[in-house]
Amino acid sequence: MIAKNFEAIRVQIAEAATRSGRNAEDVTLIAVSKTHSPETILEAVDAGQLLFGENRVQEARSKMPLLPSRLRWHLIGHLQSNKIRQALPAFERLHGIDTLELARDVNRVAGELGLFPKVFLEVNVAGESSKFGFKPEALRTAMEELLTLDRVCIDGLMTIPPFATEPEASRCYFAALRELRDRLAQEFRAPLPELSMGMSGDFGVAIEEGATFVRVGTALFGERRGKAWKPVASEMD
Fold first, then answer.
1. pLDDT at 17
2. What's the pLDDT score for residue 227?
């Protein structure tokens, strides 16, 4: 099933890229593997997927030793300050830098560890009280200091739009993130090439609006488990 789903997603990515005059190679699929077991992840690996996204640092770190070392990992969930030291060596990119204070903490710990983490700045485009992220104007205010952080490499912006049953309902939020990225890049003369936006229900629209990373879980793996995956005792021996 996963192999079939993976191929269908690849086709949808290519079709969305073509509709927007882009190359499918410019869009990277992140397989959202939160709550799924290493065995399930291996099915996706067998289908050809090597990049996975996890929401929780501890869950991801439990899975990583049980899976091939060639896999790549992104942290796509909210990063707590007390998990920074664990997260930085484990993940290729962090998608949820949502406050200036968190960015400062990441920069400080990265200096202590000798790392240069790649990050996305999370933007709460819709202003939802239930979601993390910079408000657009607050990000503009913080941008000058963010760009002075000497260890943090800002790749671009990330957003999660409000829940909607129709993909088209998300288009305005994806377009707003792209437009914000373009304004910030011009105003601060900073390359911000990446846009992390789009999930299982709306990644086609996100690609049409400029997404370079899409985060797809349910469409690949099916409905996720209700709880975080934990290794059984035998797997830890």
1. 98
2. 83
What is the Cα–Cα distance from 49 to 6, expressed in whole angstroms? 8
Share of the chain above pLDDT 90, in %: 94
Q: What is the pLDDT of residue 224?
A: 76
Instruction: Name the residue ranges covered by the structural domains of the chain.
Output: 2-224
Both tokens assigned to 106: 């990441």
* CATH number among 3.40.50.2300, 3.20.20.10, 3.40.50.10420, 3.40.50.300, domain 2-224: 3.20.20.10
Q: Which of 96, 89, 98 is nearest to 34 (CA)?
A: 96
What pLDDT is recorded for position 207?
A: 98
Using DSSP's 3-state secondary structure scheme, residue 154 falls into strand
CA nearest 139: which of 177, 86, 196, 84? 177
232 or 163, which is more confident: 163
Number of residues that make up the chain: 237
> CA 5, CA 223: separation in Å to the nearest integer?
13
Where b means 16+ CB within 10 Å and e means fewer, 187-196 reads eeeeebebbb
With H, G, I as helix, E, B as strand and everything else as coil, classify residue 87: helix
Least Cα distance to 158 among 199, 130, 104, 186 occurs for 199
Collapsing DSSP to helix, strand or coil, 4 comes out as helix
Quick check: 193 and 155 in contact, CB under 8 A? Answer: yes
Q: Judge whether residue 234 has pLDDT over 70.
A: no
